[in-house]
Design goal:
With about 375 residues, the protein is α+β, with helices and mostly antiparallel strands. The chain has four domains: about 50-60 and about 285-360, Beta Barrel (conserved putative lor/sdh protein from methanococcus maripaludis s2 fold), CATH 2.40.420.20; about 65-70 and about 205-285, Elongation Factor Tu (Ef-tu), domain 3; about 80-105 and about 175-195, OB fold (Dihydrolipoamide Acetyltransferase, E2P); about 110-170, Orthogonal Bundle (Helix Hairpins), CATH 1.10.287. Helices cover about 25% and strands about 40% of the residues. The strands form three sheets. A six-stranded mixed sheet has the order 1-20-16-15-19-2, with no helix packed on it. Strand 17 and strand 18 (about 330-335) form a beta hairpin. Helix 2 (about 110-135) runs antiparallel to helix 3. The protein is elongated.
Amino acid sequence: MNTAKSPVKSILLALLALLVVIGVIAGLKGGQIGFMIAQGKKFVPPPESVTSVAAEMQNWPNSYTATGTVEADEGITVVAEVQGKVKRIAFKSGERVKAGDIILEQESGNEEAQLSAASARLRLAAANFERLAELKTKNTVSQSELDLARQQKESSQGDVDNLKTTLQKKVMRAPFDGRLGIRQVDLGQDLAVGAAIVSLQATNRVRVNFPVPQGWLSKMSKGLPVTVAPGNGVVDKLSTQVTAIGAEINPTTRSATVQASLDNANNQLIPGMAVQVEVTLSDPRALLAVPVTSIIFAPFGDTVYVIEAGEKPGSLKARQQFVRLGQSRGDFIEVVEGLQAGQKVAAAGGFKLFNGQSVVESPNKPPEYKLDPKPSDT
């Protein structure tokens, strides 16, 4: 009997010992996890180093800015007015021409022959009319015969004038001083009426057209100062004024075209070039501004991190603040709502902060922010 019960008793003792071991291990691990949780609750992340700048009141020009397009004061595409084969190309692509200079000639042999025949008919008709007119004074011919002779003479004169005009159109000349573009025809090419030959642009004076939304249009008037900036870093800003305001508003864009004209003697501006246009509307206006780099742009709202006193004496913390923004200018952006003058904000790197985080001021100075920065290659 004792021998039969011994294996069962051994198994039970082994299970009991296993349960004791598991209980001890669970107790140890539970204690470790509890200790780690308690330590995690006590953990305070180290302060983040930030560079701060103060929101400040600035005087900005009360202006309207837009992207404009440069147009030549006079610009056309020279086209063939009559059909004909190219006989001579009298220009080179890109060269300057004077008003009246020959650009291209078309073959005109047929028209010259027709003109010769028409001129002969005109001479005959003129002589016949003069003869009948002399006879009419003697009442030798009727008035109807004289009228018919006059009609034949005038009809022959019309044929001659028409052929002379056609011959003139076969010699294309520059209608004004300017610079030619790229040649679009070849020698011997048969040109149809309206075929493009070359672009001619008078660039010594140019126009800048730029769109103005209907809400701004009432503030525009002729004579307002305008600054034009090509934006290529080579040409300085050019000063001019508003010279014309469009008479209608585009129903698609809800904007009108406003125009400014300026001299371009040095050919700094090229027709078709995009330029930045700024129209000064009135005296400067005071506004609150911060560097653009301090703004965290997000779909749910734009924010900044305000640097303010923490709970402990001498400590600082970052507080996330929603702001409503206005216009931007240079390195700055207008804050319409959400900040007050003198409040310090994180100048950059707000993406690494969170609300209520402890921060310390970095010993490094913030970069120099400008209203009119001029980047340069270094």
